[in-house]
Automatic annotation (TrEMBL):
The keyword Acyltransferase applies. It comes from the Bacteria. It comes from Schleiferilactobacillus perolens DSM 12744. GO terms for molecular function: acyltransferase activity. InterPro entries: Plipid/glycerol_acylTrfase. Pfam families: Acyltransferase. Keywords: Acyltransferase, Transferase. Residues 51-174 form the Phospholipid/glycerol acyltransferase domain. This is 1-acyl-sn-glycerol-3-phosphate acyltransferase.
Length: 245
């Protein structure tokens, strides 16, 4: 059992964030590093984590176009690699927190492997948005985890930040829900993972930007809640909100 005080609480210890070297934020994607990461993704996700994907065909009409994948953040390692298994013919890109640059061993390579690291200072955000836009225009799917914090094996869908839906509203491209659900295995105590894909969900161009972001967030969140409620049948970790007197 794991108690929590708020949904913005970290359940996985992250390295302390120092001011990153500007050169670290400008490291470029490297096809060789990505190919190695994708090979590792097959071993990790399909082998060690027992991941199976359902309804993947919803992506087929949009391959070669840019779109966003929104997932629940429940695997410290797996969530970084899972999108690679879904992309066909183009690299998958994933938006990541700057703290990930300081993860031992793999941190210095995550950008070369397809991570889009959010800069810690606001004046670099326009350039970051240009990078995300370029990925979408190149037909590369971009994955976002709007819960922001990793809660391992969590079977609930936590609140989403409206700001996480800024990108598809600005770019007027589709989004898909990528819901990781958990079921018991015949052998072993850790569950298997079944990922359900749903969509496309389009931003409503008749609404204001803020309204369209909220509407899209609510729609994707609602779909993921339905999938989790129906198919997450085994709680490896029971998360409970702490009751204060």
């Amino acid at each position: 059992m794991q108690y929590f005080d708020s949904y913005t609480q970290d359940m996985v210890a992250l390295p302390p964030v120092d001011t990153p070297d500007p050169r670290a934020l400008s490291r470029e994607y490297n096809p060789t590093v990505y190919a190695a990461a994708k090979a590792f993704a097959e071993l990790l996700c399909r082998g060690a984590l027992h991941v199976r994907v359902q309804n993947e065909q919803v992506l087929d009409p949009y391959r070669g176009q840019g779109y966003f994948l929104y997932g629940n953040h429940t695997q410290p390692m797996g969530d970084a690699f899972l999108p690679m298994l879904l992309a066909k013919g183009v690299p998958a890109k994933t938006i990541a927190n700057v703290a990930n640059l300081q993860v031992p061993i793999i941190g210095p390579y995550i950008q070369a492997g397809g991570a889009l690291v959010v800069p810690p200072d606001l004046h670099r955000m326009p350039a970051f948005l240009q990078t995300v836009t370029a990925c979408i225009q190149a037909g590369e799917p971009v994955t976002i985890y709007p819960e922001a914090h990793v809660w391992p094996y969590d079977t609930q869908i936590r609140p989403f930040s409206r700001a996480a839906f800024h990108y598809p509203v600005t770019l007027q491209v589709p989004s898909f829900a990528m819901t990781s659900t958990y079921q018991a295995r015949r052998l072993g105590t850790k569950p298997k993972i079944t990922v359900y894909l749903d969509g496309p969900f389009w931003p409503d161009s008749t609404l204001s930007t803020r309204q369209a972001q909220q509407q899209l967030a609510d729609t994707v969140h609602g779909q993921m809640v339905k999938r989790a409620a129906q198919f997450s049948t085994y709680a490896y970790i029971d998360y409970r909100k702490r009751v204060t007197s």
